[in-house]
Design brief:
Helix content is about 25%, strand content about 15%. By secondary structure, the chain is an alpha/beta fold. The structure holds 2-acetamido-2-deoxy-6-O-sulfo-beta-D-galactopyranose and calcium ion (CA).
Length: about 525
């Protein structure tokens, strides 16, 4: 009997040992997979919290982005650092609060690069860990060191802050130069037709949106009345470079193909792709395939176009057999705006759509809609689908992705929240300072405190409440997501608590704004 028992235990033991070995092998594979997946950041421009059907939109259907949201972690408290583009992109790539760099504000197309080439960036950090790195799409973080000659290699730029490959527009679709650059060189430039750019003075004899409205196919509403390119008046003056000028209606397809080609060309090393799409920023120029498809005018149409691009891009990852080895982060650089300077029916044809969802404000605003944006992480087979209410900011990707790839190279303001991004934890940030056109406010727990700011309560041109008020504002976002009940007076303790954290986090603000990053 005892002999049988021994044999039985021996068999049991060998099964257990076998299973453990098997698990270890599996564990190792997972670990290998977890260590260096491809990483793609898909970043939209001015897409609002309520602009996706997965975030509550009922008048627009965005099935491809929704598939990421339902198959990954959909964040309800995901923030861009700022309510405009340049600072948000600065924070995303450097992991630093943009209000620590006074140059991190909406830049003209001629602005110098605002990221120090010695600074850690998401791209540099990943490159050091063996990644191939690429930018496709909008840059808007400045180029060169002062005066840019667009007819020579423009440097420093994305390549100098960590991107091995960079295919981009310099600033925004509404700003000159209206050309694509590849690794610092304007693509398709004819040497006999050099490019000249000036943001102050026009070139002699050149029509402008202001003087020649008859030449405009899209009319400007405010700003945007300088050089006319493809019937669209822009910000800034441009001369020459005719052959190199982009075609607005093809822009989405153009960037998509570049992103797809990049993915297909990557074989041996893991890659990091920052795919910075231009929609739904102005001028909204949907490809004819999407014109009229939303019933909401060009703004709705380009959101559908962007969703289609995301779907096509994901298909490429699938076809290449790498979808389950690719971590995708989807987000937007700031909240929504309807009329941002052109007459394009965004207001007139809005219907029942609410680009900001239930949130107050929009682009440029310290109210929630300025910075709270769609934020999704997706990694097929690794991230368990779910909805997370954790407080996260795009600035935290640097420390978190560093952890993922096995380094702690990061920046002081970026919080390591890898488990939160992977949906394994809901312990997000405790606090976050948000920024809107150099003004700042503090989110802490469920609360937000907006200090008093001078200036108009509303920007009438864009019809957005900015968050300025004579007195402190304090809102409990859990109970009052639309920021209607200012509790600053009735809850002075909470106000003081947030003010203390705010002051500590910002340090001496006036000092900080004067500080130049070396
Ligand atoms: C503003 C532009 C706006 C947009 C914005 C930048 C005017 C009147 N308004 O100055 O149209 O280009 O800058 O947007 O020119 S962002 O998303 O890149 O920050
Ligand atoms: Ca933007």
């Amino acid at each position: 009997m005892l002999r049988y028992a021994h044999a039985f235990i021996a068999i049991l033991l060998s099964i257990v040992i076998g299973l453990t070995a098997c698990n270890n092998k599996q564990g190792k594979q997972n670990k290998q997979k977890a260590k260096s997946p491809n990483i793609v950041v898909i970043y939209l421009d001015d897409l609002g919290y309520g602009d996706l059907s997965s975030y509550g939109a009922t008048e627009l259907q965005t099935p491809n982005i929704d598939a990421l949201a339902s198959g990954g972690v959909k964040f309800t408290n995901g923030y861009a650092s700022s309510a405009t583009c340049t600072p948000s992109r600065y924070a995303l790539l450097t992991g630093f609060y943009p209000w620590k760099n006074k140059q991190a504000k909406i830049l003209p197309g001629t602005a110098p690069l605002i990221i120090d080439t010695a600074q850690v960036t998401l791209a540099k950090m990943l490159k050091k860990q063996g990644y191939q790195t690429a930018l496709v799409g909008k840059w808007h973080l400045g180029l060169g060191t002062g005066h840019v000659d667009w007819n020579k290699t423009v440097s420093p730029g994305p390549n100098e802050v960590g991107f091995d490959y960079a295919y981009y527009m310099a600033a925004t679709q509404d700003r000159v130069p209206t050309v694509y650059l590849k690794d610092g060189l304007v693509e398709g430039l004819d040497a006999n037709d050099p490019i000249e750019i000036d943001y102050k003075n026009n070139f002699e004899g050149q029509p402008t949106g202001k003087d020649n409205p008859e030449l405009c196919e899209m009319m400007w509403h405010h700003g945007h009345n300088s050089t006319i390119v493809n019937g669209v008046p822009r910000i800034g003056y441009m001369k020459g470079g005719e052959a190199a000028k982009w075609n607005d209606i093809d822009m989405a397809d153009h960037f998509l193909v570049k992103a797809q080609e990049y993915v297909k060309s990557q074989k041996d090393k893991p890659f990091f792709l920052y795919y910075a799409m231009q929609q739904p920023h102005v001028p909204r120029t949907p490809h004819p395939r999407f014109v009229g498809k939303s019933g909401m005018g060009p703004r709705g149409d380009v959101i559908l176009e962007a969703d289609w691009c995301v779907g096509e891009f994901i298909k490429t990852l699938e076809e290449e057999g790498i979808l389950d080895n690719t971590l995708i982060v989807f987000s937007s650089d700031n909240g929504p705006v309807l009329n941002d300077g052109y007459y394009d029916d965004a207001v007139e044809k809005l219907g029942n759509h609410t680009p900001a969802g239930q949130l107050r404000g929009g682009k440029y605003s310290l109210f929630e809609a300025g910075t709270r944006v769609p934020f999704i992480t997706y990694w097929k087979g690794t991230i368990q689908p779910g909805i997370s209410d954790a407080l996260v900011c795009q600035m935290d990707l640097l420390a978190s992705l560093a952890k993922l790839v096995g380094t702690n190279e990061s920046s002081t303001d970026s919080e390591e929240l890898l488990d939160v991004f992977l949906g394994k934890s809901t312990n997000g940030r405790e606090s976050l300072v948000i920024e809107a056109t150099t003004r700042t406010a503090l989110r802490h727990g469920d609360w937000i405190m907006i200090p008093p700011y001078k200036g108009p309560a509303k920007n009438k041109l864009v019809n957005i409440e900015l968050g300025n008020a004579q007195n402190f504002q304090l809102y409990n976002l859990k109970e009052d997501i639309g920021q209607q009940n200012n509790l600053a007076k009735s809850n002075p303790e909470k106000l003081q608590e947030l003010l203390d954290i705010f002051n500590t986090t910002r340090g001496d603000y006036s000092q900080i704004t004067k500080m130049e990053l070396k």
